Amino acid sequence: MELQILITLLLFLLLVLFPIFFLFRGKKYPDGLPPGSLGLPLIGQSFDLLKALKADKVDKWFQEGITKHGPIWKASLFGYPTVVLHGPAANKFIYTCDGNILTNTQPPSISRILGSKNIIELAGHDHKRVRAALTSFLKLEVLKQYVAKVDEEIQHHLQTHWHGRHEVQVQPLIKTLTFNVICSLLFGIERGLKRDKLLPHFQHMIEGVLAIPINLPFTQFNRGIIARTKLVPMLIDIIREKREALQEQKQANPRDKDLITSLISIHDDDGSPMMSDEEIIDNIIVVMVAGYDTTSVLLTFLVKLLANNESVYSAIVSEQQEIAKSKALGEALAWEDLTKMKYSWRVASEMLRINTPVALSFRRAMQDIEYGGFIIPKGWQVLLSSSMTHMNNDIFQNPTLFDPTRFEKHSLQPPPFSFVAFGAGPRMCPGIELAKMETLAMIHRLVTQFTWELLKEDECFVRNPMPEFNQGLLVRITPIKATFMSSKVSL
Ligand code: HEM
Predict the structure, then answer these.
(1) How does pLDDT run across 175-234, given as a tens digit for each residue?
(2) Is 423's C-beta closer than 6 angstroms to any atom of ligand 1?
């Protein structure tokens, strides 16, 4: 195994980093670079950052850089010279900078799996156009009507994977749930063989995106590429079926609509389709990749918190029981119910502040940029850490303390660009309402149907780069009582 890792690293150096090294080797950079060192050729400080990320100590890594060099400094990360930034002003600069000046371009290895037309890769007019198409379905006014559908997936999930068990591994189970919610709500793929066939391909693709990009038969990256080649024909079939259904007017009821149908239906003012099939495919893939791990990480941390924090648990249970009492037995959750879960969302927000799923954001300078009195040369990366801002004592006092009152209406609200778990500006997460809906509905069903305790009090997680609990967060569960369980929902 270790030999395999060594060979992979050597090949990574040969195939990826050396070409980048030679590209940048002879370059003369303009004056006015930030302080700091680019470290060893190619490797720079990459391993240090990866080590800190794995141990969830990114803020410590940033702090050491700040202490050494000041608030803005340079480093070499993953083969590129990089300017490292932090804080609300830097967040504002990065999240609102013109997408043609500071691009979101990912390494070619990532777009090889996600596709070159995925929204993360796009800039300018194309980004606006694809984002408008995605948000036309993901916006609150539309999603509101699908709360019962999300709830039904959750009820089915709990019935299948939780009831009748004494112990469960929370994180892998919740990943299955987020996959199923996205399949049902966004792709309109009902439970059954078709859905089951998609899951392993998506999982391999996600692992491939996060892997070292060596395309050899035994690597995760290679598995990710193969998974894409298998998945794309399946998605082409799904798009064709939905187009036929639309033409036959089988989907007259807008409630039967899903994101894919919505993307096929959207036309420009001149009547031509707003998105090509290639764009639809790449963006279906990116929506799954972006929505699968993030929401499941949040829910997993919440399950852990509720097992450990008695006062937060009691307050959440009383809020959720009030809502359960107002419903008939078996009645599905509706949008109005979620609007009453204010405390629960404050707890989720505080969890997103402390354990933010997306800890680092990278951008690439397309021209020389001046920022904070320094030059960021064309071609360099810019690195930003949301957890650095979330852990800033001047913004969030006593930042390691879990305190949901920070998000109360009458509390001093964090200044703009300080709470950036969902990013900000024109690229702010378009899945925020879906994430909120899934999180609140799942918390409701969990606390009204089960109590639980951690089987390993000290179960840790590592970031790969998403937080992964060592044993998937093992808990012992006890069902509460049948009165809160749905009898109407068909299981
Ligand atoms: C707790 C859950 C989630 C968190 C914390 C989260 C976080 C983020 C963040 C921080 C960004 C911006 C990254 C950057 O600018 O560098 C982002 C973008 C994005 N997210 Fe989410 N996300 C979540 C759930 C979802 C879901 C459920 C979906 C799917 C519907 C989704 C789809 C996307 C997409 C498509 C983008 C790219 C937007 C663009 O480039 O314009 N996310 N997310």
Answers:
(1) 999 999 999 999 999 999 999 999 999 999 988 887 777 889 989 899 999 999 999 999
(2) yes
How many structural domains compose the chain? 1
CA distance 34 to 371: 10
Could you tell me if residue 400 is inside a domain? no
- Write out the binding residues: 429
Residue 294 Cβ < 6 Å to ligand 1: yes
* Ligand 1 touching residue 91 (CB < 6 A): no
**Does any ligand 1 atom lie closer than 6 A to the CB of residue 485?**
no
What distance in angstroms lies between residue 209's CA and the mean position of ligand 1's atoms?
15
Residue ranges making up the domain that contains 247: 116-328+425-491
CB environment 445-474: b (16+ within 10 A), e (fewer): bbbbbbbbebeeeeeebebebbbbbeebbb
Where residue 171 sits, what CATH number does that domain have?
1.10.630.10
Which of the two residues, 27 and 219, has the higher pLDDT score? Answer: 219
Which residue ranges are tagged as binding site for heme? 429
For residue 362, being part of any structural domain is answered with no
